[in-house]
Design the sequence.
């Protein structure tokens, strides 16, 4: 092979790997920690404390712990307790996680993206596990105040939202991406 532009070594982040890239370790550990925290909390509430659906405990003036099983998607849209529906949503979460992992493995844009994608992947897998094992997503946190009440959410939802915010920040902050843009 002739020395030149085509023979130079390619950075590991952009080597075309669909499985592992420069920030895959960060994303993997972030996803794993997110998944473990989410599942441990849910099973501790359900099995350890024995919380039943609909039970509600005030934790703070603005936060209640309540066990709600969400059988729909965000905000309980397309609600259905049918196992086939739950399996379909779990399958969709798995496909999205695979697509996000591929993005993570092939990109080399930075730690924030690796962390953000790991949060989303861990949260999606955690909610997918709930759908298969519980027949819906176990949600526990209810924020309320001044006569208003938000939807009930869980640790996986927090991770997914934080991951999306991280991706938005990473994509909108020009100086963060300056080294990855073509010149």
Sequence:
């Amino acid at each position: 092979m002739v020395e030149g532009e085509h023979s130079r070594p390619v950075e590991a982040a952009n080597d075309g790997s669909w499985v592992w890239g420069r920030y895959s370790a960060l994303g993997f550990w972030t996803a794993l920690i997110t998944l473990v925290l989410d599942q441990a909390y849910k099973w501790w509430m359900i099995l350890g404390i024995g919380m039943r659906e609909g039970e509600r405990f005030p934790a703070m003036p603005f936060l209640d712990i309540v066990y709600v099983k969400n059988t729909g998607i965000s905000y309980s849209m397309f609600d259905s307790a049918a196992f086939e529906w739950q399996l379909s949503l779990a399958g969709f979460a798995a496909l999205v996680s695979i697509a996000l992992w591929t993005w993570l493995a092939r990109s080399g844009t930075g730690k924030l993206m690796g962390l953000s994608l790991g949060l989303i992947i861990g949260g999606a897998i955690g909610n997918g596990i709930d759908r298969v094992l519980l027949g819906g997503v176990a949600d526990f946190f209810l924020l309320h105040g001044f006569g208003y009440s938000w939807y009930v959410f869980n640790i996986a939802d927090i991770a997914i939202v934080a991951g999306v915010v991280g991706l938005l920040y990473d994509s909108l902050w020009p100086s963060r991406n300056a080294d990855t843009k073509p010149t």
The CA atoms of residues 10 and 16 lie 9 Å apart. The first strand starts at residue 56 and ends at 60.
